[in-house]
């Protein structure tokens, strides 16, 4: 049986997430992840103009138990369908660029939340670990 680490169909971002489950300070994996594109679901309440504007990204915010807020992003359509099967619109965004403009409020980022290689970062973690110029 193939595991994500030896699955040749895994994306570079998924392989980086797998590496980070072993070592959360793996600089190569963090750089790979930061330079990868992720799928950001377009919130249902975003109008077409807002959803298509190239300079802004409407973030889908989910409330977690305990009132914590998290933005889900995904490394592939299959990963997105695993957690949010009814999402019909998404934006493809470089993760490092998204992180560089991350809101200052306490808003976590969850990458591939329903997978074995999921990674959730606090807002500070997003800005310090993934933001790239």
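Q: What amino acid sequence fits the structure above?
A:
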């Amino acid at each position: 049986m193939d595991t994500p680490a030896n699955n040749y169909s895994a994306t570079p971002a998924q392989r980086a997430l797998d590496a980070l489950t072993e070592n959360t300070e793996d600089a190569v994996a963090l750089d790979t992840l930061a330079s990868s594109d992720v799928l950001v679901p377009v919130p249902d309440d975003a109008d077409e103009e807002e959803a298509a504007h190239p300079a802004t990204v409407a973030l889908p915010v989910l409330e977690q138990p305990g009132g914590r807020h998290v933005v889900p992003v995904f490394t592939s359509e299959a990963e997105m369908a695993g957690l949010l099967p009814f999402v019909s619109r998404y934006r493809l965004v470089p993760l490092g660029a998204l992180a560089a403009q991350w809101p200052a409020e306490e808003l976590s980022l969850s990458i591939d939340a329903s997978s074995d290689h999921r990674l959730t970062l606090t807002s500070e973690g997003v800005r310090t670990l993934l933001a790239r110029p």
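Q: And what stands out in the fold?
A: Residues 1-6 have pLDDT under 50 and may be disordered.
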